[in-house]
Amino acid sequence: MIIHRAFYREAAQVTLAIAAVLLVLILLMSLTALLGRAARGEYSESIIPLMLGLQLLKKLDLLLGLALYLGILLTLGRWYRDNEMTVLAACGVGLSQLLRPVFLLALVFALAVGAVSLYFTPLASRQIEKVKSESPHRQEIGSVTPGTFMEAAGSQSIIYAAGVNPESGRLENIFVSNLKLGNQAVVVAGTAHAFTEAGTEHKYLALRNGTLYDGAPGEADYRIVDFEALNLRLRPKKAAAASVGIEGAPTWRLWARTDGDHAAELHWRLAKPVAVFVLAAFALVLAYTDPRRGRLTNLFAAILVYFIYSNLLGLGQTLIKKGVVPPALGLWWVHVGLALIAFYLFARRSANKPLLSLPARAR
């Protein structure tokens, strides 16, 4: 049918455009968080691109579902504003005839969302933990940014460098604190560079032309030593083994567990593809645009429905964990309840009735 093909084409284009915008927003937020952690020395900048891709993969299922919801809403909303829906109604094509293309498109996205939610999202969670455990936990000394404090390998020291010599690449005007020398040590040096001892692979910080202040905090008996050369060994902590929580557990393993935490995670993964159909039904209903109320009224109502749906799913997940809702019921009460509301509103919209039946004013 020509109408169906036109809907598929426009809805797909709008959905992909919205997905691209959401993708950029997620990338920017994730990149900001990752750069902040790298600046604090939690891990090396070298793993940021990989971590960014894995973080995106974890959020891809929610991104696709939201993009389709808004894509259907905006596509049909334009049809209403341009009176295309009015023309279709005059030709005998009502909302009921749009159910098939809307839910066929939702089926395609639900399959993609289901694959991401049930397989790729937990896989990404496992890979994130693996990358964290295998990558350096702290930045190398050579990657110190001038003018910023950095926690060095194994949290053994705090290092500050005022600048870097462009020719030699050595740090200049160094301040180092908490190096585990005696009680409390502070070192101020003219230059510094890192090196690895041959044979032992131990890392050292070579300080040149400086002063060591060593003593107990709060006491006046500090030991002050001027030096020409001082090598401080950096003792990195052992990398912790990758800890795979419930979020990273394979879906097949969740089926075999009956406790609340595993059941809540399983139903949360299943909820994402199911929500695609429920949201598609709401988009079909809420797309109607009344010229007298403006274009943003239906968009506001759609966003409100999305947040209510998301909060109810979050509440249901908490109730499953606490044992209030049995695992067999899961989150289906949320899906079924909202689906019934969506189809009730669809019936009123198809009959050209207002979505909400308000009592008439007394004259």
From TrEMBL:
Asked whether the keyword Transmembrane is assigned, the reply is yes
Spell out the subcellular localization from the entry: Cell inner membrane
Which residue windows are transmembrane per the record? 62-80, 101-120, 270-289, 296-316, 328-347
Q: Which Pfam families does its entry note?
A: LptF_LptG (PF03739)
Q: What does the record give as the organism's lineage?
A: Bacteria, Pseudomonadati, Pseudomonadota, Candidatus Muproteobacteria
Q: Which UniProt keywords apply?
A: Cell inner membrane, Cell membrane, Membrane, Transmembrane, Transmembrane helix, Transport
This chain belongs to which protein, by name?
Lipopolysaccharide export system permease protein LptF
Matching PANTHER family: LIPOPOLYSACCHARIDE EXPORT SYSTEM PERMEASE PROTEIN LPTF, SLR0882 PROTEIN-RELATED
Q: What's a GO biological-process term for it?
A: transmembrane transport
Record keyword tRNA-binding present: no
Q: Which Gene Ontology cellular component terms are annotated?
A: ATP-binding cassette (ABC) transporter complex
> Topologically, how does it sit relative to the membrane?
Multi-pass membrane protein
